[in-house]
Design the sequence.
């Protein structure tokens, strides 16, 4: 530390030549809220200073770069993202995000840890070191997120102590068990105490929480929330001392609406986040550069928007070494053509040019995925397990409501054979679906009925099923479903489409059954093809996103009805119910 | 921690009764930048929440307080103060500051540590626990501040490690050796490294530093500066990531001028401080309530001003537990009649009512001062040591420039006897003065000439002499000077006036020769009387503050010329010079 500090002082004071000098940039001063002219001197991966460094003699080694009138802003910080929801590895996410100005992401590996436990965290930490993108990991706080499904791991406060001591772990990820916190559930409180004792930041998730309940939640020092749906909710969180994350993801689009809450007085309390961001969204719209475009489109001052993407996030997460172009900070820099379209010309991370005109420059390095492979492990699975032996043809179905993730509990009359087994008919849009436990060898298989999915042929199965990520399969017959599940196991997870017992489309996700080891472009191509075939060949309804819709069907915290490996769960009653309606 | 957290959650959620509910207050929301209506529920010394708590049933133990339409703001945080400059003990300062809304001060015990070393810090820490005012101590960074005088202690980086580990020490105090930092002086850098390794905040002091030098200084992560003289200096510091302290003290009045630099965009980067605040100023003008009045007088929005006095300071110093009225924060609260005159009605610290209508309510408790008494220890001092044996009557004098602390080096012709000893004459306003070492028994006595002080009878001596606090004495004869120094030793420091060998006024400061064990009112009465007698009886010039002027005469970092126990120091040459001019 001392040698580095002395080197930076020497360069800052103009006594020693910088490693890199960036001239002719319009430097965004996020502290003062303005743009200043000056040359940026960089050494040891840090900013030594902004000033008249361009007029000093340079070492033969020193590079001088002309920013050619670009705005130079601090690198962007995504305050909350689940890498797994991009279906790519951390290294690949880095390749996709960095050219859009992302230099730091706060990542919550909630999905992989639900599958692989702390082994999953270790993999993410190691893989994260292989990209120039600085990935700051949060320890997932709620594994499993509910007791209503079988997860691959169960991490209590005691098990958290060790990873919380790890300097590479920034804090505790979104504490979605707000019911536990507000209700003083001891297991939840123990986790908060463990994080506080370790001096770590705690991120929040408090959808719909208000009033005294919000006070109880905020009183624990939970730093932020990304689940605000109204201006009132935003103002209440800010008054409670929480930062508000303005989210624009692939599934949730809260940014435009929530920007209405930003004022000159409270702007310092907002940060930007993706939460979930699929390759398609990144390829078509970008990353935080897109957030910034939207902010300015909606009338926000560009520097206020940039502060949300930089210094505010650094302050929220205690990342004192970044977030501004100032002496001693990491040289994470973005060259912008203007402050309206936020076209990214160049990106530097720790003083190194890492992206130019949309291309990630460093050589791609990848961490071996062996440790998180082979995550699809069923016990004694066969079509026999899909038998339902129903005593009534009046059944509770899970009705898909297109355009969101909420479902409706709807009773339907279905056709059964003499053994009480479902027979798929064309007159009603109801299909059998099942959740097959894939982590602990419980042999759990639960069956139910999916309503409004539209499937008319074959089967589709996925190993992405929030939050425990068991297998969800839906098909027109037990045989097709069995073929899909077996194919999914063989390809080590992901998504698969089967017709007449044969695989007709597939996207293997060998990393915990959640992420590909291929490129984001490959994932996008695969998903596009799967969607096309799902609609055209399997007949899945056009207004339903075939894969993502399924991935939310086990999420037993969102109304109104879900299917997990333990059975059919009525979220309103907060209890398992019978498939038979009466 | 866990039990407290659960208790606060219970109260916040409305399940358990609060210890105290404050109703009918206009609650200042420093995060959102507005005023909200709501009842404040307090338990465990913390705020559980703001909401409809007034309508809940209360325990028979619970107190309900009616704020009666007062504004309720977070308690004020003075970002930088030297308690010693108030000439009172920490306990007494607490008594004086709290009724003015001060609930936290960031104190740098630079003076007492220069006299007593870390024993002085320990005393301040213990004494600080005896007042309700939360005193957050910084470890003095520069002891001694220069090598040009003998101090009572010499604290290098190695000796800092232990106190920096102390949780009761918030950080490293104003790093005034900016020359050392910018010049990469290893001793200075070692101190910064020690503080950073301990994870502590580092405060700054960078008078007049600009451009690349400021970058070098700021690159070390120094958090703030209170020495800004111009808008340009302020803007430069903000762009460098430093907080700017707006100072209004007894000696330095920078607030009104520096407020011109505050904008909506940069306001979050300002905090308020006193630096030095004498009892007279506190009794007549107050504390941060006076800063706030001035802010609003100068046109600043009141809530922006309040943010500087609260949440900004908390953020600057990493005091995450305070600075706002929000769930989980310390219940440090101030009731204000309005947001213009900032008349303080009530003050709460950690949920306890500690001041009302200008009166500090708790019983006064004081820590024994034995450990910091008897600090005036000369070796072999007598009038003989004041002999100068001059070979020339052309001498370099220290010319006082009224209204500031800068001096002028002025050559004068004085009258000498045959032995080369000075004879005081009426025709020229030059008197002999001396600095007598009082810490280490060096026996050092240095003599020089003070020009423009006006003394015509007797002698005056003080043990306050920045920054090493040796004895400064000025008088019309060696005998009067000797009498003053001996009287000062007998009374254990402070200030003394002598005429015809007899003490005619005195203010003993037994705590390290810097602070009284009496009240602020007593100090004020003593100082008033000393000033009166100094002017009327000793003939000291009316435009000279008799005591404070002397206390700056050894400060070898401020131009142009000073006298220390080691001799006459030319600040411009940065070297000792002879008293004889040629």
Sequence:
């Amino acid at each position: 530390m001392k040698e580095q500090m002395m080197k930076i002082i020497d360069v800052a004071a103009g006594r020693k030549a910088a490693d890199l000098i960036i001239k002719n940039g319009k430097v965004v001063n996020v502290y003062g809220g303005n743009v200043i002219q000056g040359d940026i001197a960089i050494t040891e991966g840090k900013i030594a200073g902004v000033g008249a460094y361009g007029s000093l003699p340079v070492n033969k080694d020193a590079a001088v770069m002309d920013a050619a009138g670009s705005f130079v802003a601090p690198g962007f910080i995504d305050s909350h993202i689940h890498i797994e929801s991009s279906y790519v590895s951390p290294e690949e996410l880095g390749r996709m995000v960095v050219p859009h100005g992302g230099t730091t992401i706060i990542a919550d590996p909630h999905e992989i840890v639900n599958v692989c436990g702390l082994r999953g965290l270790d993999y993410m930490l190691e893989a994260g070191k292989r990209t120039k993108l600085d990935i700051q990991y949060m320890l997932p706080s709620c594994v499993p997120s509910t007791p209503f499904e079988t997860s691959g791991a169960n991490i209590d406060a005691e098990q958290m102590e060790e990873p919380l001591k790890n300097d590479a772990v920034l804090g505790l990820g979104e504490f979605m068990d707000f019911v536990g916190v507000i209700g003083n559930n001891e297991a939840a409180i123990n986790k908060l105490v463990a994080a506080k004792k370790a001096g770590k930041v705690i991120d929040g998730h408090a959808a719909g929480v208000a009033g005294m309940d919000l006070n109880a939640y905020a009183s624990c020092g939970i730093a932020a929330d990304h689940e605000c749906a109204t201006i009132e909710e935003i103002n209440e969180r800010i008054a409670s001392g929480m930062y508000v994350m303005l989210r624009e993801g692939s599934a949730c689009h809260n940014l435009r609406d929530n920007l209405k809450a930003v004022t000159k007085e409270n702007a310092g309390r907002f940060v930007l986040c993706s939460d979930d961001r699929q390759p398609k969204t990144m390829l078509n719209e970008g990353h935080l550069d897109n957030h910034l475009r939207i902010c300015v489109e909606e009338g926000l001052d560009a520097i206020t928007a940039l502060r949300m993407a930089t210094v505010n996030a650094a302050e929220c997460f205690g990342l004192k070494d970044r977030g501004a172009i100032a002496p001693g900070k990491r040289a994470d820099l973005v060259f912008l053509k203007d402050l309206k379209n936020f076209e990214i010309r160049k990106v530097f991370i720790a003083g190194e040019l890492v992206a130019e005109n949309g291309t990630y420059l460093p050589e791609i390095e990848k961490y071996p995925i062996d440790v998180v492979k082979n995550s699809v492990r069923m016990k004694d699975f066969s079509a026999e397990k899909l038998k339902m032996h129903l005593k009534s043809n009046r059944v509770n179905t899970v009705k898909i409501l297109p355009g969101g993730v909420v479902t409706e509990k709807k009773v339907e009359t279905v056709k059964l054979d003499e053994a009480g087994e479902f027979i798929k008919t064309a007159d009603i849009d109801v299909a059998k679906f099942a959740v097959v436990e894939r982590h602990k060898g419980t042999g759990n298989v639960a069956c139910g009925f999916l309503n409004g999915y539209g499937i008319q042929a074959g089967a589709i199965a996925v190993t992405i099923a929030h939050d425990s990520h068991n297998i969800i399969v839906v098909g027109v017959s037990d045989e097709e479903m069995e073929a899909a599940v077996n194919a999914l196991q063989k390809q080590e997870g992901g998504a698969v489409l089967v017709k007449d017992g044969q695989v007709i489309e597939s996207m293997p996700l060998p990393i915990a059954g959640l992420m590909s080891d291929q490129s984001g472009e490959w994932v996008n191509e695969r998903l596009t093809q799967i969607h096309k075939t799902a609609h055209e060949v399997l007949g899945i309804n056009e207004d339903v996103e075939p894969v993502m819709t399924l991935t939310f069907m086990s999420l037993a915290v969102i109304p109104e009805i879900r299917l997990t490996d333990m059975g059919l769960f009525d979220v309103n009653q907060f209890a398992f119910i019978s498939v038979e309606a009466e």
